[in-house]
Amino acid sequence: MSGLEAAILTIITASTPLLLAAIGELVVERSGVLNLGVEGMMVMGAVCGFMATYYTGSLSLGVLAAMIAGVLMSMLFGLLTQTFITNQMATGLALTILCLGLSGLIGEPLTGLPGLKLPAIEIPFLSDIPYIGKILFAQDILVYTSIALVIGVQYALFKTRIGLIIRAVGDSHSSAHALGYSVTKVRYLCIMFGGACAGLAGGYLSLSYTPQWIEDMTSGRGWIALALVVFATWMPKRIFLGAYLFGTVWIMGLYVQGAGWPIPSQLLSALPYIVTIVALVIISRNATLTKLNTPKCLGQPFVADR
Questions:
Q1: β-bridge mates for residue 135, sequence order
Q2: Would you list the domain boundaries of the chain?
């Protein structure tokens, strides 16, 4: 059981950054905005979170710095796409390229240095339950946060007035504007929320998953998070299942390598991305399922006087 327990714990750590980034991007896309800069915001969260922790010795400040870095990068994206009405896809790609280069520049002095690791929060008595105690009740704060975010976003989007407004803006921004809602304001706030989640995801990588800074340490996880939103058909509860499915695939590749199976390491490294492509192809074949929850105004700019 100890080997299985270790494997499950590893899957949780691999799935958490995907879940954090994807749940934030889901809210952004529900408001009608397509932000392809998730990878960039994650890597900035990773370097800024590690830097703050390394120089201050405070993990709390590191987590906060990761969130702020993600929010600042998202505000840059929001400024360009919502105020200056630039193309959302091109702007998101440019943001990722900018962040990858900028993170490498400011993180150069920190490369390879050992960092602090987020401690596990053990819930008294529950963490001592055989087999499941360490898995469910002895995780770090960001694992619990990721699960709470899924529950909170699911409830907020479908049970509250603010969720109704977000979905209205994403499905028909002209109608929402006619009803008196500020489409730009709603989208800015959603973009910032997505940035905070992406920053947290990056911070998790450098403060928990691998407590150090390595250039480009996100390794494409931001792109997988984007695919997860489509995979989950814009439903928060499905994001959870998708993130843990992809996290399992990611870790199984490492376990197969460690077991010495005669499979090229390059193929195993590419396995999560292959699964991502296959999943998207399967989903795209079901047009009804895809159209059912897709925000109608996704990627469309909004200008009030048009």
A1: none
A2: 2-111+127-293
Tell me which architecture the domain covering 2-111+127-293 has in CATH: Orthogonal Bundle (1.10)
Partnered with residue 111 across adjacent β-strands are 213
Backbone dihedral angles phi then psi of residue 147, each to the nearest 5 degrees: -70, -40
Chain-centre distance for alpha carbon 42? 7
Per-residue pLDDT at 252 exceeds 90: no
- Spatial distance between the Cα atoms of 252 and 270, rounded to a whole number of angstroms: 12
- Tell me how far apart the alpha carbons of residues 95 and 36 are, in angstroms, rounded to a whole number: 8
Averaged pLDDT for residues 10-15? 94
Residues 82 and 187 sit within 8 Å (Cβ to Cβ): yes
114 φ, ψ (degrees, to nearest 5): -70, 145
Residue 87, token pair as written in the block:
């193309």
User: Helices marked H in 160-182 — which ranges?
Assistant: 161-171, 173-178
pLDDT above 90 for 126: no
Structure tokens at 92: 């998101």
Q: Which two tokens stand for residue 80?
A: 């360009």
**Which class for 174: exposed (0-12), middle (13-18), buried (19 or more C-beta within 10 A)?**
middle
Is 111 strand, coil or helix? Answer: strand
